[in-house]
Amino acid sequence: MVRGYSRARVMGHIIPVSVNQSLLSLLKLEVDPNIQAVSTQEKEQNETLNNKFTSFIGKVRHLEQSKVPETKWSLLQQQKTARSNTDNMFKSDINNPGRQLDTLGQEKLKPEVKLGNMQGLVEDFKNKYKEIKECADMENEFVLIKKDADKAYTNKVDVESHLEGLTNKITFLRQLYEEKIRELQFQISDTSMVLSTDNSCSLKLESIIATVKVQYEYIANCRQAEKHRDDCYHTKMEISKMSQNISQLQAEIRGLKGQRASLEASIADAEQCGELVVKDTNAKLAKLEAPLQQGKQDMVWQLWEYHKPMNVKWALEIGIATYTASCWRARRASWSVGCRT
Question: How far is CA 168 from the centre of its chain?
């Protein structure tokens, strides 16, 4: 002001001075009631937030008392890119029944291989059974052949008896013929032969011719009988050979029947063993499926238990964030009120 006055004096005229009258008025030092209401409201909010914070702290302490959430929380904090140990535990728990199922599947393949071997044995047994059936058919044919052979043997016996009778008769006729020849020779030597043209000859040539003819027929029959005897002998030899073959076939049939019985018993045992193995494998699979399902349910339950503290943690973080934000707003409000005063 002095400088302005002196300058105005130097200039030769006075400059008027303007004064703000509001600055000359007295300051109002009264307290605004709205500020008190705001402060009380802020106090109430701080108290509610403190109560919530204390309740959250109590929940945190309650959660800290539990070891499982603490270990899981530590694992979650330590986890960066790798998975947690709980996942490995769950995977190991899940993979153990899978491994057991794989081992059971491999064990299941063993009975299938055994079953294939048994089926091969069954095919062999079927082939042997076919052979046995063929042997049975041959045995039936042998029975029929034996019947025919028995008939032939009876016929042979009849023929042999008839042949024996014929041979006896032939020998008797030969002896008779020789005796008659001797008698005739004796008569011829004692009597003198008288030749005449009389038809009533004492030698009776017609009767002699007839007897010679009869004897010739007997000789022919004898030759036929000898031939028949030779045929019967050959037939007898063939029958003996056939009887030997029949005895051999019967022995083979008995052996095949024994083999058939043993094979049927072994087939029954193999089928029973295969059924028992299949039943045992199915029972083991059922027993393993039950713990697998239980493991899945336990895994779901553990995941649910794992998410419970995580939800509480997120709620605590949200509450702490809201509490810090409200505290920060309260501080800013108090600072602004202090600046106003």
Answer: 83
57: helix, coil or strand?
Answer: helix
Tell me the pLDDT tens digit for each residue of 71-96.
666 666 665 444 445 556 666 666 66
Locate 245 and state its tokens.
């073959």
Phi-psi bin for 232: left (phi > 0), alpha (psi -120 to 50), beta? alpha
- Among residues 303, 24, 264, which one has the least CA distance to residue 129? 264
What contacts 222, CB < 8 A, 6 or more positions away? 166, 167, 170
Report the alpha-carbon angle 79-81-82, nearest 5: 70
Using CA atoms, how far apart are residues 316 and 52, in angstroms rounded to an integer? 10
Residues of the chain with pLDDT under 70: 1-36, 38-39, 60-98, 100-101, 105, 108, 111, 184-185, 187-205, 337-341
pLDDT score of 204: 55
- What per-residue confidence (pLDDT) applies to 78? 65
- How far is CA 84 from each of CA 73, 75, 88, rounded to the nearest angstrom? 10, 6, 7
State whether residue 193 is helix, strand or coil.
coil
Q: What is the residue whose two structure tokens read 């106090």?
A: 43
Residue bearing tokens 């025919």 = 148
**pLDDT score recorded for residue 192:** 42
CA distance 245 to 256: 16
Two tokens at 153? Answer: 């043997």
